[in-house]
Amino acid sequence: MCITLLSTAHPAYPFILLSNRDEFLNRPTAPAHWWDAPNEHVLGGRDLQRSARGTWLGITKQGKIANLTNFRDEGEEVARNKSRGGLVTAYLAPPPKSEWDDETFVKYLVDDLGIHNVGGFTLLFGELREPKDGSLPGLAAVSNRTSSATGVPRIATKLGETHGLSNSHFGDTTWPKVVHGEQLLKEAIDADSGREHNQEGFIGRLFNVLSVDSLPRPEEGENFQTFTRQLRNSILIPPVGGQGIISKPADKVAAADGTDTPGNGEVKVGDGIYGTQKQTVILVDTKGHVTFVERTLFDGAAQPTPPDQNSTRFDFDIEGWHR
């Protein structure tokens, strides 16, 4: 039950995004890195289980960002050859100077790619640019229920907004973790805005938001599928479920460019331990400087990653920020 929290309310950072990726911990996943050619302008992790090598969260040197959460539509037919993570790649991967505006992208998803049988999802995407008179381009919100390129809702179009999204449609306030996450992010921003700013301390407080565990513990003998409804109550999902299935860590099965995955067809996904696998904090300051920090909490063998080895940081300036 992943969660995304974003805000445009911090005076020093007109865009903040927090993300927890919740998954079966044995699912092979590449840590965040600059992708191999011809997509070397893209920064993000990658799912190594499926050949599409999709991602749940990515950002480009030109300021394009996309984040996907999925959910289950009961009774809906899903095409097994379609990857929801591939939708993020479809937005981020085109060459930096290609003419691909948001409406054209949505039209491509609906008319050409086909998204109504890809499984339940919400995709946030857009370009990050310098605020103009308190306004921003914002992010479009598309789902598998989107029927046309017109009328797609946009969020984070003004300074002062804070939003949350989990494994349901955008705007669903029945999920306690979303409501709680929005509140905690607002409080972290308010606290930081009222003191002398220290970026490292602020990043630590944001990871604290992502690490709030309020999950009721399963009762003895409770079926995991029944227990999954409880996952909507907690921002962080501690390891729950069966015994971990031993598989090769992602960094061992991936080639140097992070996309080759020999032997992963034998990894059984959808079984074993489930929980928050990765946490990400993205800050974009008023000059267009991006700070991207990812924490990997568990390796591909479902083993905890030592705290002194679980964090990766990237810093870069958005090309065209003042455009």
Describe what you observe in this structure:
The structure is a single chain. With 323 residues, the protein is an alpha+beta fold. It has one domain: Penicillin V Acylase, Chain A, CATH 3.60.60. The chain is built from six helices and 14 strands. It has helices at 85-92, 102-113, 176-193, 199-210, 224-227, 250-253, and strands spanning 3-7, 15-24, 29-34, 42-47, 57-60, 64-71, 120-127, 139-143, 154-155, 162-165, 240-241, 273-284, 289-296, 311-317. The strands form two sheets. Strands 1, 2, 10, 11, 12, 13 and 14 form a seven-stranded antiparallel sheet that branches. It starts with a strand and ends in a 6-residue tail after the last strand. The model is unreliable at 243-270 (pLDDT under 50).
- Write the H/E string, N to C: EEEEEEHHEEEEHHHEHEEE
CATH class: Alpha Beta
Give the overall silhouette: globular
pLDDT < 50 stretches:
243-270
The DSSP helix count reads: 6
How much of the residues is beta strand, in percent? Answer: 25-35%
In angstroms, what is the radius of gyration?
Answer: 19 Å
Determine the structural class based on helices, strands and strand pairing: alpha+beta
Q: Residue-averaged pLDDT, rounded?
A: 83
At the fold tier of CATH, the topology name is: Penicillin V Acylase, Chain A
Secondary structure elements and pairings:
Elements: E1 3-7, E2 15-24, E3 29-34, E4 42-47, E5 57-60, E6 64-71, H1 85-92, H2 102-113, E7 120-127, E8 139-143, E9 154-155, E10 162-165, H3 176-193, H4 199-210, H5 224-227, E11 240-241, H6 250-253, E12 273-284, E13 289-296, E14 311-317
Antiparallel strand pairs: 1-2, 1-10, 2-12, 3-4, 4-5, 5-6, 6-7, 7-8, 8-9, 11-12, 12-13, 13-14
